[in-house]
């Protein structure tokens, strides 16, 4: 695969499209970047899935999580909050025995806790409205990877608000990664072929 680097660190692929270096290291990451990262997610199940996967990613590479994504979907019943909220200790044991997912007791427990919190949050308008209420007024326009921050005032506030509602594994850095992934901010580098593709900041 022939690739060249632009002045601001983007990788120009053989298809002529510019992507950040992280999205140019494997076909899986490239597909994720080209089709999903930064696109709006506004449904409860989709957001619960991404909250869960972001928590499991902590300390690991995102590619590791993506490779296990379908296994996670099977193990967590397509991230149906109602079903996961009813998980018992027998389900935790089942998941800890499942070599196709990331086996971490604290993260598994967090997924169950967050499913229950998601169900409870329906009484306050639901997870989607709750998260998107923290969308900033403007989006960054990073020129290089070094310009991309790891938190924002909004991600700090979102993390605090979610914790107040009983969610766990939702720190400011994790929440900023979520905001990037679901299009609440557009952190595609200026010059990337995906910049502005979400429609949120058009």
UniProtKB/TrEMBL annotation:
Gene3D superfamilies: Hypothetical protein, domain 2 (1.10.340.30)
E.C. code: 3.2.2.20
Pfam families listed in its UniProt record: Adenine_glyco
Keywords assigned by UniProt, alphabetized: Glycosidase, Hydrolase
GO molecular function: DNA-3-methyladenine glycosylase activity
Domain of life, per lineage: Bacteria
Top-level class of the enzyme under EC nomenclature: hydrolase
Protein's name according to its UniProt entry: DNA-3-methyladenine glycosylase I
Species: Corynebacterium guangdongense
Taxon lineage: Bacteria, Bacillati, Actinomycetota, Actinomycetes, Mycobacteriales
